[in-house]
Structure formats: C-alpha cells, structure tokens
Amino acid sequence: MDRYTGRMAKAIRFFELNTGAKIPSVGLGTWQSDPGLVGDAVATAVGYRHIDCAQVYGNEKEIGSALKKLFEDGVVQRKDIFITSKLWSTNHAPEDVHEALNGTLRDLQLEYLDLYLVYEATIHWPVSMKKGSTGFKPENLTQPNIPSTWRAMEEIYDSGKAHAIGVSNFSCKKLGDLLEIARIPPAVNQVECHPAWQQPQLHAFCEYKGVHLSGYSPLGNPATLKSNVLKNPLLNTVAEKLGKSPAQVALRWGLQMGHSVLPKSTNESRLKENLDVFDWSIPEDMFAKFYEIEQASTPLCTKLVKGTAFVHETLGAYKNVEELWDGEL
User: Is 57 a catalytic residue?
Assistant: First the structure.
C-alpha cells in the first residue's frame, strides 16, 4: 500500500507539521473576498478550523472583528482555530518583518499566529519591493535577501508570536536553498495546487524534506482567474459517479494527495459544500486516473498564478517567469 492508497478511506481532517502542530486539512481562503462579505464568511464558516489571511489582502481588520466576536460569544476558542497570515514583499528587511507581524496581530486582534508565511522574496513571494510602495510597478522591484528575511522569521518563531513559520510560492530550488541555511526549517510551502496543476516534483520534494505543502486556488479560482479547472472532463465524470460536485472532488483529491486545501468562498451554501469532504473518498481506481490529466498550458490545464508582475528584464531579481519559478512551469 503506497502513501496515497493509505489515505483513501481516511477522513483526513488534519496534517502534522514538522513542529508537531496539526494544521486543519481544509482552510478558508480569503484572497480577494469582497469587503463587507469576508467577515460574514468567517462568522458563517464556523465549521472551518483554519483561516488563511494576508496583510496584502486588505481584509485582516474585518476578519479580526469577526474572530473577536466568535471568541467572545463562545462559538469557538482561540486554541481550536488555526490562523495563517503572510509577510508581504515590501517588508522584507529584517527590521520590517517584526513590524509587519505586529500590524497583522493588531488587525486580527490576536496574540499569536499559528503560521506566518513569507512570500518567495518576502516569503509570500520570493521577491522584494520597496518599502511603502503600492501596486506592482517594475520600478518598485528590489533584490531580495531571503536568508536575512528568514533569520527575522526565526526570531518571530522564537518569540512565540508565530507557532510555525513557512514560505509561499517557493520552487524546489528556492526551498532547497533555504533549507541549507535555515536554523528553523519552514513548516509549510503554500503554492497553487489543483488537479490541473498537480506539482508532482514539488510535492515529492516537500514530502522528502518534511515540509507540508498547502494548496491555494484548489478549485482554480473560477470567479477571479476565470479558469476551467472545474470543467475538466475527468473531474466531472468522477463527480457524477460519486454523487458529488466537481469542487468537492477537487478538494478531496488534494486531501488524498496529502496536502491541505484553501478554497475561497463567501457564499454560505458553497462554504458548507466545500467542507463536506471528510466522510467519503475517491476510490483507488478513479484516483489513479488523475495522474493522466495533462499538466501543460492548455485551456483546461495550466498554472494560473504565474507572478508576471514580479519579473522585469532589467529591474528586480528575475528577468522572466522561468527564472522566478526556476523552470518549474
């Protein structure tokens, strides 16, 4: 029995991190959730035990107010909910890392985060931008210093303000380079992952190194990115045979692959549907078919979030998206 087959019949409600902590397998994504709706979504999604946030999303204050009310009303206790946030690319300097985290904690009205991620250059993305800059203008791009940023992240972990630290949008090469110099290894690498962009090389590398892979846009983000992931014929065939929605099958596929998933919705019925992935599984023969989905830039199979705003021929660290992802496209 391989590691995937062994997960077929399990509920898979949590994954264990290299810190010993357990990360809930299904989290509520909040990227591009509409203002005025994201707080209601957090309040409605009381079955979720993982909320994925970021300062750059611009909604942490609203989420913080919703969380405070849930805690005060006794709906859920702080210890029972896993909250992630991320360092943005304008705060890569070591002295800015602490300031950024404190700002996030104030907005979320929390004393600590369960997980703090740095984008690829700020560890949310492996790029850095001028402090105080807004938007994605090429002239704002700077040269990242991931080792110094990571040392500041390690200090945050030591302080107890983040119970785990990790990265986002890191390729195998960038993750490997970081692991060579890290005193505290990243617990998580959050990347785009769905049946049409399965990332097998990165998946295997993370598992080998003990870094949990967490998948954003697990449904392809059809509303924002106008993707066709949920229209994949195999996904729909499996969904019809199991009496589930294509979205549920895509999420369950992620759990059985061994990574947590972060679907985004502010719709109450979809919030409930996306959480109904524990009491059933994709049979082994159907699950094996997912490996046959072509992983190439076709209308149905492509990487959706390429990071084109972070590349420039003469400015910043990367001339093109191939350099940004170290050829892992």
Answer: yes
Q: Which long-range contacts (CB under 8 A, 24 or more apart) does 241-250 make?
A: 241/286, 242/280, 242/282, 242/286, 244/280, 245/273, 247/219, 247/273, 247/274, 248/273, 248/274, 248/276, 248/277, 249/282, 250/194, 250/195, 250/218, 250/219, 250/220
The active-site residue out of 4, 48, 57, 116 is 57
Tokens read off for 222:
């059809």
The answer to whether 124 is annotated as binding is: yes
Structure tokens that stand for 120 in this block: 């690829």
Radius of gyration of the chain (CA): 19
Amino acid (one-letter) located at 265: S
Residue-wise pLDDT for 187-200, tens only, equals 999 999 999 889 99
H runs (alpha helix) in 73-213: 94-108, 146-159, 172-181, 200-209
Angle between the N-to-C axes of helices 233-242 and 246-257, in degrees from 0 to 180, rounded to the nearest 10: 100
pTM score, whole prediction: 0.84
Rounded to whole angstroms, the Cα distance separating 25 from 184 reads: 23
The Cα 58–Cα 56 span in angstroms is: 5
pLDDT band at 301 (very low <50, low <70, confident <90, very high): very low
The Cα–Cα gap between 154 and 162 comes to 9
